[in-house]
Amino acid sequence: LTYLDAFLAAVQDAYDPEDNPAGHVVLAVAENKRSHEHFLEQMREASSSGGSGAAGSGPPPECMGYDDMRGIGRLRTALAALLRRTFLPVATEERLTISAGCGAIIENVAFLTCSPGDAVLIPAPFYPAFVNDLSVRAAVVPWAVAASEHNPGGRHVPTVRDLEEAAEAAEKAGHPVRVLLLTNPSNPLGVVWDADAMATMIKWCLRRGVHCVSDEIYALSIFDEAAASHFVSAAVLAEREDVRAEGDAENLVHVVWGLSKDFCGSGLRVGCLWSQNEALNTAMNNVSYFCAVGNYQQHVLAAALEAEEATDAFLAANRARLRQAAELVCAGLEEAHVPFVRPEAGMFVWVDLRGALRAQSAEGERALWQELLDSKKLLLTPGQDCRGSQPGWFRCCFAAVPEAAVREGVQRLGQFVKDEAKRF
Predict the structure, then answer these.
(1) Are 230 and 191 in contact (CB under 8 A)?
(2) DSSP three-state, residue 308
(3) Could you give the CA distance from residue 169 to residue 157 in angstroms, rounded to a whole number?
(4) At what angle do helices 278-287 and 102-113 cross, to 10 degrees?
(5) DSSP 109-135
(6) CA angle centred on 72, ends 279 and 85, rounded to 5°
């Protein structure tokens, strides 16, 4: 991440309306702290029984020994039940693998499906840390796919032609394409791709014999009701007859999800893979040894998630808080006449600052990012880190800092844009 050093410095001087009103406002982290205390309390109640489910009984003895490296049965059962009643009705315990975060899941899937130097196609703009997840140890090449048609609402859905051209370019450069990595809902766009768009991309994978990995980590953070109604998991689409007719959907379609975003638990380091590919699941059992989640934590989380009524109430309340935070940012941007993609899910807004660029280039975007940091002490995610096709777009994350800091950040951004407009 090109902004990592700036982030580490900024958080040491974080804005506080009382104690540090001139401090930095950090709106560059896709982390959800809007509801973390609420699920933490649910975990506290579960941990009071040691995760055993019986008050005062302490941790179950099985916490102390080896267990299934794909995740203990109890947690996989609880997660499968949660997924079935929310967005992944085909989920079963046998098809799930649990690891220490979705980054570990994605790295291991890349390691197992690719050889070093192979390409993973990713529609752009995309989550900046995918580059690290894929390249550091698996040594595969993240290859951005730019959408030629900018769909209504800024959805950036690549066409079949876009996918073909990206694959041909990657292969011409010596990087055979093995995986298409999708993120739905999108980070950084905050929008939901509908079933037709997803099915088109999945079918392309099946015709080519390419794995389709759908990162759906924001599936339970869709706060726009209309968008929620047209979200369909890739796992569900893989069951459609028209999709299965294109190729081996059973072995080539996989879904990634975790607790980091929807449950405000990025520090819990719990991600899971749904796959029907028996060979992949067997291999994940082997490599998951290196990134397993501790058994005691798994028991506590299982006990918390088994409280289904409390869990469902938490998810609904979290979506409401995210909606409120998104509306706050959108209202501030509209007041300042700053264009943006209206978010439907997640915890970010894709903001258009192309009008403030001194030069229409990656260098011009970097200079603008630095000026925002230096003059307004405002840290946003640079669009170039997300492999945006046009310089001047930035990701603004609104759930990692208190509401007062979000308000201050949007106010500073609006003032910056007004100041820039006066120069011309």
Answers:
(1) no
(2) helix
(3) 19
(4) 120
(5) HHHHH--TT-EEEEEES--TTHHHHHH
(6) 85
Q: Per the structure block, which two tokens stand in for 31?
A: 């982390």
Tell me the pLDDT tens digit for each residue of 192-210.
999 999 999 999 999 999 9
Quote the CA–CA distance of 248 and 250 in Å, as a whole number: 5
Tokens of residue 266, six digits:
């990025």
Q: How many CB atoms lie within 10 A of CB 149?
A: 11
CB-based contact 180:114 (threshold 8 Å): no
Name the residue among 190, 192, 171, 184 with its Cα closest to residue 213. 184
CB atoms within 10 A of CB 362: 14
- pTM listed for this prediction: 0.95
Distance CA 235, CA 62 (A): 32
Report CA-CA distances (Å) from 357 to 31, 150, 156. 28, 21, 22
> Which residues have a Cβ under 8 Å from the Cβ of 134 and sit 6 or more positions away?
106, 107, 110, 120, 140, 141, 142, 181
- Residue 236 CA to its chain's centroid (Å): 19
CB contact at 8 A, 172 and 193 = no
Nearest residue to 351 (alpha-carbon basis) of 410, 391, 395, 414: 395
Tokens 């807004």 correspond to 349
Residue 254, SS3 per DSSP: strand
- Residue 29 is which amino acid? V
Residue 223 contacts residue 183 (beta carbons within 8 Å): no
Residue burial 266-294, b: 16+ Cβ < 10 Å; e: rest: bebbbbbbbbbbeebbebbeebbeebbbe
For 313-360, how does the pLDDT look when each residue is reduced to its tens digit (9 = 90+)?
A: 999 999 999 999 999 999 999 999 999 999 999 999 999 999 999 999
Please give the torsion angle defined by the CA atoms of residues 32, 86, 315 and 62, in that order, rounded to the nearest 10 degrees.
-80
- 291, 108 contact by CB (below 8 A): yes
Q: How far apart are CA 349 and CA 357, in angstroms?
A: 19
**Cβ distance 144 to 387 under 8 Å?**
yes
